[in-house]
From TrEMBL:
It holds the Pfam family Actin. Residues 1-25 have a biased composition (Basic and acidic residues). Residues 1-35, 116-145 are annotated as: Disordered. Signal peptide: none annotated. It comes from the Eukaryota. This is Actin-related protein 8.
């Protein structure tokens, strides 16, 4: 057998082995199309980089370094915070729905504590007024004495119903308090855990009160800042949010728009530009809270002057 025939036989064996592997379910690794280009392994390797630091009246400093897996770890750490070893207790702090302020008359805790008591006292006053009415005479003393137990029984029934109403009002307040505690429990489950960007967005939307608000939030998501400036980050974040959305909203929402880089604008300057535009509006002059107003009214001024729901 010549060398050419041997080479053909070896190539045939290799092709046959590849076909057998494919039949067994062993395939070559394929890089998903949705993975950002900066995260793909075929372009992530040991590469040399350099940068310069210039100071006034001093020579420029040139630094050279090599990057390997760091190019893969840095973008993926936004979605997997455990990559940086952020696994300790109380590493993150979430903003609670209501911190409770005794100076605020519309505070949630204050309303839950006082509303049921006010309802019970009002109903008890009404019951006392109805019970203090004189019983009419309907004949002789015998008839009056015979009617008295029945009237007392009727009053007891009325008082019993009013007490039941008070208990119902108390139960309603207890249900509201239970709902408040359940929301705080849901929030506390995420405390101490470093959430990825996609999970943080889903958790923030899930804390909304109504389904209509959640639907609006899912339909348009704007990411502000320069943390997602690497290539294909917008498509990758959109893919992860679509996969982790609740099935009920996935059937309703037609399209989920994730915007990380607006047109003709640096994403690092969006918040500053929005604040500059807001400061130029005429209505902004009415939102100022002066020192004498704050000293007199305190937190209540935020209800009247705050630009957003507080």
């Amino acid at each position: 057998m010549t060398q050419a025939e041997k080479g053909d036989a070896e190539n045939g064996k290799e092709k046959g082995g590849e076909k057998e592997k494919e039949q067994r379910g062993v395939k070559r690794p394929i890089v998903p199309a949705l993975v950002p280009e900066s995260l793909q392994e075929d372009i992530s390797g040991l590469q040399d980089h350099e940068f310069q630091i210039r100071h006034p009246d001093s020579p420029a400093l040139l630094y050279q370094f090599r990057l390997g897996d760091e190019k893969l770890q840095a973008p993926m750490a936004l979605f997997y915070p455990a990559t940086f070893g952020i696994v300790g207790q109380k590493m993150t702090t979430l903003q609670h729905r209501s911190q409770g302020d005794p100076e605020d008359p519309h505070d949630e805790h204050y309303l839950l504590a006082t509303q049921s008591k006010q309802e019970q006292s009002a109903k008890a006053t009404a019951d006392r007024k109805s019970a203090s009415k004189p019983i009419g005479f309907e004949g002789d003393l015998r008839g009056q004495s015979s009617d008295l137990p029945e009237r007392l029984h009727a009053q007891e029934v009325d008082l019993g119903s009013s007490q039941a109403d008070c208990l119902m009002a108390g139960n309603d307040s207890e249900e509201a308090l239970t709902a408040l505690m359940s929301r705080k429990t849901a929030i506390s489950l995420f405390e101490g855990k470093a959430l990825g960007l996609d999970k943080a967005i889903l958790h923030s939307i899930d804390c909304c009160s109504s389904d209509d608000t959640k639907k609006k939030m899912y339909s348009s998501i704007l990411v502000v800042g320069g943390g997602l400036m690497f290539h294909k980050a917008q498509e990758f974040l959109q893919h992860r949010i679509l996969n982790k959305m609740p099935p009920s909203f996935r059937r309703i929402i037609e399209n989920v728009d994730v915007i990380t880089r607006p047109k003709d604008m640096d994403p690092r300057l969006i918040a500053w530009k929005g604040g500059a535009v807001l400061a130029c509006l005429d209505t902004t002059q009415e939102l100022w809270i002066y020192q004498r107003e704050w000293q007199r009214f305190g937190v209540r001024m935020l209800r009247e002057r705050a630009a957003f729901v507080w």
